[in-house]
Write a structure and sequence with these properties.
This protein is of the alpha+beta class. It has helices at about 5-10, 25-30, 60-65, 80-85, 90-105, 120-130, 145-150, 155-180, 200-215, 275-295, 305-315; strands at about 15-20, 45, 55, 70-75, 110-115, 135-140, 185, 190, 215, 225, 250-255, 255, 265-270, 340, 345-350, 365-370, 370-375, 380-385, 385-390, 395-400, 410. The longest helix is centred in the middle third of the chain and has 26 residues, at about 155-180.
């Protein structure tokens, strides 16, 4: 949580944090600037123990003021003069701009750099700033960063926002189920009113409309994959493929608040009309595993231990897993889940490797999403995913937005 930021900075020896760039698709800027919309010339400086300062274009001063933070107009530092004095050398001019900003805000010591900029540009600028200044050292973090730690647990406002996205998401999922069931089947394929096949592309267009109406956006794109494609975990499906009866549909939807903000992640697996016995059995295996993990998981459980438990449960049911064969591309080929917040994938992570110490900490939000994938020797895939909050008061996982886990959707067999 944001309240932990100064403590984490102190533990890591950081005197200040800097993030740059727009707030859109830039979680650190969005988070520290309290969700206001700013563009690429923005710089935010946070000294340990102090409120962050936003340095923005004068065009954005009113929007930046909505953050509640101190705002400095970039023109104060005369960046055009600096660029002219450096004869158009943008690297040197930007390094000088940082120099005068740091002097103005009395920033010294170790400054940690965050945000989403092109990697070469960020590296070159950090090196130039370090070469010019003796009392500032710009550093970066590679893994388990300050923000990884801060974002692992959510405060009540963050939970409420993610819960709201979840409620709207399952509304879209419900619309999708009703839309599919409203179509009649001809020769084991859903058809539209004109008799042409209903395709994945047709369904996705409706999903995008429902998301927009719910004030949501899905930057990564919806997964709506059928049959063999459903057996490859991140196959998004082919738009021209018809919707056939009796084949698994993996429907994975991960929208966020429109304009950037908090995500939700959710998956259901459906068969239209009927499910073949092999798929019914595999689905029961996944659902029972899902229910076992939810029943057993408790606060502060080691996440990699839950991944090991899933492997144990599915191996006992006769399926290969990444534990029995780390290179397998059939059976259980994924990890159990991941954290969700301003990033669609963030801590805690459930992968089983030495050094993964992530836990189901009080206040974390994470997905639980076991699945089975048989693309070539079965032509199907199955995944069930809910987004859950580790309730600090109750010490157990709470589902943030539930929806039916029935495998078979009815279809309209009328004329």
């Amino acid at each position: 949580m944001k309240a932990d930021l100064d403590r984490l900075m102190a533990e890591r020896g950081f005197d200040a944090l800097v993030t740059t760039g727009p707030s859109a698709n830039n979680p650190t800027m969005y988070y520290l600037a309290n969700g206001v919309s700013v563009t690429e010339v923005t710089m935010l400086v946070k000294k340990r123990g102090q409120t962050p300062t936003l340095i923005v274009s004068s065009y954005e001063r009113d929007e930046a003021a909505k953050s509640g933070l101190p705002v400095v107009e970039r023109s104060k530092y005369d960046p055009v003069r600096l660029l002219n004095e450096e004869r158009g050398d943008q690297l040197r001019a930007n390094a000088r701009l940082w120099e005068v900003v740091f002097a103005d805000l009395d920033v010294r010591g170790t400054v940690a750099l965050y945000g989403r900029e092109e990697q070469g540009r960020a590296l070159a600028l950090a090196n130039e700033v370090n070469a010019r200044q003796s009392d500032v050292r710009v550093v970066g973090e590679f893994a388990n960063t300050v923000f990884d730690a801060v974002w692992t647990t959510k405060d009540v406002d963050e939970v409420a926002r993610i819960r709201s996205v979840g409620a709207r998401t399952v509304g879209v999922v419900g619309n999708t189920a009703a839309f599919l069931s409203s179509h009649r089947a001809v020769d084991d394929v859903l058809v539209k009113k004109d008799g042409s096949p209903l395709t994945i592309g047709d369904v996705k267009r409706e999903i995008r409309l429902w998301l927009a109406e719910a004030d949501l956006e899905d930057p990564g794109g919806v997964i709506f994959a059928i049959g063999r494609d459903a057996g490859v975990p991140h196959s998004r499906g082919e738009d021209d493929q018809p919707i056939a009866l009796g084949e698994t549909i993996v429907y994975d939807i991960s929208p966020r608040e429109a304009g950037g903000g908090y995500y939700f992640d959710f998956t259901r697996t459906w068969c239209l009309g009927f499910a073949p016995p092999e798929i019914e059995k595999a689905y029961r295996d996944v659902l029972e595993t899902f229910e076992t993990i939810l029943a057993e998981a408790k606060v502060n459980d080691l996440c990699r231990g839950l991944q090991q438990r899933v492997c144990q449960l599915l191996e006992a049911r006769g399926h290969p897993t990444v534990r029995s064969d780390p290179r397998t591309n059939r059976g259980y080929v994924t990890s159990l889940g991941h954290g969700v917040g301003l990033n669609i994938h963030e801590h805690p992570f459930f992968s089983d490797y030495e050094g993964n110490v992530d836990t189901l900490a009080p206040g974390c939000i994470a997905t639980i999403e076991p699945g089975l994938y048989y693309p070539d020797d079965g032509g199907f895939g199955i995944r069930i995913e809910d987004c859950l909050w580790m309730d600090p008061a109750m010490g157990r996982l709470e589902n943030l937005a539930d929806f039916s886990k029935e495998l078979v959707l009815p279809v309209n067999n009328g004329v």
